[in-house]
Amino acid sequence: MATHIGALRPPVGAHKRSKRIGQGMGSGHGKTATRGSKGQRSRSGMRMRPGFEGGQMPLHRRLPKRGFTNIFRKHYAVVNLKDLEEFKPKEKITPEVLVERGLVKRLGDGLKVLGGGELKSPLQVSAHIFSKSAREKIQKAGGKAEVIS
Question: Taking the model in full, what pTM does it have?
Fold first, then answer.
């Protein structure tokens, strides 16, 4: 057992010496230096980009393009009703309050309240969008769902 840090050694077989190529015929890796003879791969500076198929039309160009990215898409920060349970009754909840409390990281294009979970206390919730079920549950609990424009 090693008694001090200077005596630590890796286990036998953990380190394999790198193959030294092109170091003369006696090394066993001389002359062509493990590259074979002739051809694209034997030349110096040989590097093929990922996905290169030897000049054949590559797969990513053979397959059809599909879909598109809507540049006008809105990215809403989402919060469920079960997350609003920690607030006191009659408390006013705004997007800024949710960011402050750490329930929402980034607001993006606004706040959307979803109806996941149940709401027992009446709350005044201000958000940019409410799902139908969230609005119903907030009003059923005696609270108010206010839309911010």
Answer: 0.58
